[in-house]
Amino acid sequence: MKEKLQSIKDEALKAIEAADAPEKLNDVRVKFLGKKGELTAVLKSMKDVAPQERPKVGQLVNETRASIEKVLEESKKKMERAIREEKMKQEVIDVTLPAKKNMVGHRHPNTIALEEVERIFVGMGYEVVEGPEVEYDLYNFEKLNIPDGHPAKDEQDTFYINKDIVLRTQTSPVQARVMEQGKLPIRMIAPGRVFRSDEVDATHSPSFHQIEGLVIDKNISFADLKGTLEVFAKELFGPETKTKFRPHHFPFTEPSAEVDVTCFKCGGKGCRFCKGSGWIEILGCGMVHPHVLEMCGIDPEEYTGFAFGVGLERIALLKYEIDDMRLLYENDIRFLKQF
């Protein structure tokens, strides 16, 4: 029995010495010390040993087990240390290398312009309201005084989901929805994305953004509209900015006007930016049509109001002197990181 145990020990030590990976050391442990290992088999054969010899044989088995476990543990630690040292050599950090740049993004020019407009109007007591981009024809056209067959529908050629549902062509439907609620007075702006089936060029896109404003209260006049837009223009383009109102037509408003501001590049003297006129057109506006008030459940004899609308991209193009609207949507990092 002593010779057999010595043979098992010698075989185990030889296997440990030949192992070149932690997995192989584990295989050695299982083969010699596991539940079905060779030392366990010796213990199971103790019933064939004479009773007086069993204590001595048991002691020899335990000594053999202890010897094998000791060498296994030493080999394991030695192997792990060698693996760790090799890994550290491979993962060494060169502290003299330049650090990696953390590329941090920033707000899009449209977002910067929108936040500026919102800041101005919120400062004047307006509420920012949003609405659905997929809208009923009823809100997008009919409640804005554009009945079926009206020529204004041709000017706002849009994308139809079906005959009753469209992708909104303006954010005015949000104003109609707010007026319907009947919570007066109203002071709101409605920014958002709108859609028209335009060809893509330097000044047009099938998807763009608008900011529309609405005020409904008692005794609101065109003078209130002019004063509001003058304050807005001065806040956005500078305190020296002047405004000019030109008569126009919008189905939603009557009377209506287009608004120009003095060129903030030349101060109104005339330059390439304003095409020599000294003025730049920025938005359309007017007094809310009485029929629109009636359709939204508001008494036009008691309440009046004004509305205005401006293209967000137009503000961004003017403010940052960008000459092609497509640059805003091409996601060219070289362009966007200038803002």
From TrEMBL:
Entries under InterPro entries matching the protein: aa-tRNA-synth_II (IPR006195), aa-tRNA-synth_II/BPL/LPL (IPR045864), Phe-tRNA-synth_IIc_asu (IPR004529), Phe-tRNA_ligase_II_N (IPR004188), Phe_tRNA_ligase_alpha1_bac (IPR022911), Phenylalanyl-tRNA_Synthase (IPR002319), tRNA-bd_arm (IPR010978)
Cofactor (UniProt): Mg(2+)
UniProt keyword Ligase present: yes
UniProt remark on cofactor binding: Binds 2 magnesium ions per tetramer.
Keywords for the protein's UniProt record, in alphabetical order: Aminoacyl-tRNA synthetase, ATP-binding, Coiled coil, Cytoplasm, Ligase, Magnesium, Metal-binding, Nucleotide-binding, Protein biosynthesis
Binding-site positions, Mg(2+): 254
Family matches, as NCBIfam families: pheS (TIGR00468)
Subcellular location: Cytoplasm
Complex formation: Tetramer of two alpha and two beta subunits.
Pfam families: Phe_tRNA-synt_N, tRNA-synt_2d
Coiled-coil annotated residue ranges, if any: 65-92
E.C. designation(s): 6.1.1.20
Family (UniProt): Belongs to the class-II aminoacyl-tRNA synthetase family. Phe-tRNA synthetase alpha subunit type 1 subfamily.
Full protein name: Phenylalanine--tRNA ligase alpha subunit
Protein's gene: pheS
Catalytic activity: tRNA(Phe) + L-phenylalanine + ATP = L-phenylalanyl-tRNA(Phe) + AMP + diphosphate + H(+)
GO annotation, biological process: phenylalanyl-tRNA aminoacylation
GO (cellular component) term, any one: cytoplasm
Residue span, Aminoacyl-transfer RNA synthetases class-II family profile domain: 117-330
Gene Ontology MF terms: ATP binding; catalytic activity, acting on a protein; magnesium ion binding; phenylalanine-tRNA ligase activity; transferase activity; tRNA binding
